[in-house]
Amino acid sequence: MVWKQPSPRVRDLIRQCSQLVVNARPEWLDELDAAVLGANRTIASDPELAAAVSHSNRANMYFWGTANVRDPGAPVPANTGPEPMTIARELVRRGLDAYALDAYRVGEGVAWRRLMEIAFELTTDPAELRELLDVCSQSISAFIDDTLAFIAGQIELESDELTRGTHAERRETIALILDGAPITRQRAEHRLGYALTGNHTAAVIWSDDPAGDLSRLDRATEAFGQAVGARPLSVLASSATRWVWVRGVNGVDVATLHHAIGGESDIRVAVGPTADGMDGFRRSHFDALTTQQMMARLHSPQQFAMFADIELVALVTADTDRAAVFVKHALGAFEFASAELQNTVRTFVGEQCNASRAAAQLHMHRNTLLRRLARADELLPRPLAESGVNVAIALDVLRWRGGQLG
């Protein structure tokens, strides 16, 4: 492509646009994330991949913007920084094709619409607008094309690297077991160095900060094994995610696990139920993945989650829009009540609506409990006596989600 130097006036307008892009408002970035993740469920349901795509989209905006602040209207080279490298690595380690890169095109469209709005705020002269938009359109399109070409090349390199060595063999064996392929237990055990008889408890351990010190994930995996008293089997699902299994334990003590890993605030753990044999190895893993996906979908502030605790919430929140409507219908104004009042109601329902047991559980006088329940009835759309089940489920959704649904 032959680039024509823009006029001095348009160069100045491009610089002004780019300065606004470099200092993008938080709501612009939120709009970008919402559009990209909303267009691709594969990315949105994977917290690590979603974070990597978000970082990469923002890095691309900043990269293009700073280049045009320095030299307005000049060709912008591909972004070959750490963010595109991370995207390539994450796609390959998940076995995803480059179709997930369509998210970049969605991001390009959002950024372009925002830039047009900025352009129309800077000038109303038709000739200036025509030249400004023409130059920026070509520049953004060429920049994204070149960056995607770089990522595609990195995907090939990462694929070559991943298909060599013992990690590839372990991952391949895990994939065969999870797919229910006809691999014998003895052969799988030999390749994994892990006995597939007895009980198995699976976990997904990941970091919300893919750019951080990922050696902490290995330490977290070891801490998980120590917390349950068993040597873990671990496979590198991606650069910031470990799939983990432990054998011969009957569940996981969350308090012990929190003591072992809780100091690492960006490390998250989703744990499946304990189950028997190769089929249990599979089922526990898939339930751990369901738990992780629910935490990501709800932007949950919780660091640890057990499938047994979230199974119903995961079903209810599979459609976040409908879940938001359910919560509003079930709770009404009580959705915004104090955490103390909500916890009182949650405990009361959990104790089969027995006031004496609930008061003892909460270490409060029975009359205090009854006053709080009366206050809850004032806020609820229907009395608690008529809607206890729905209220309890809605409160569980509130417990696990971060911010607002919908």
Automatic annotation (TrEMBL):
Residues 342-395 form the PucR C-terminal helix-turn-helix domain. It holds the Pfam family GGDEF_2. It comes from the Bacteria. It comes from Rhodococcus chondri. Belongs to the CdaR family. InterPro entries: CdaR-like_regulators, CdaR_GGDEF, PucR_C-HTH_dom, PucR_C-HTH_sf. Residues 187-293 form the CdaR GGDEF-like domain. The lineage of its organism: Bacteria, Bacillati, Actinomycetota, Actinomycetes, Mycobacteriales. This is PucR family transcriptional regulator.
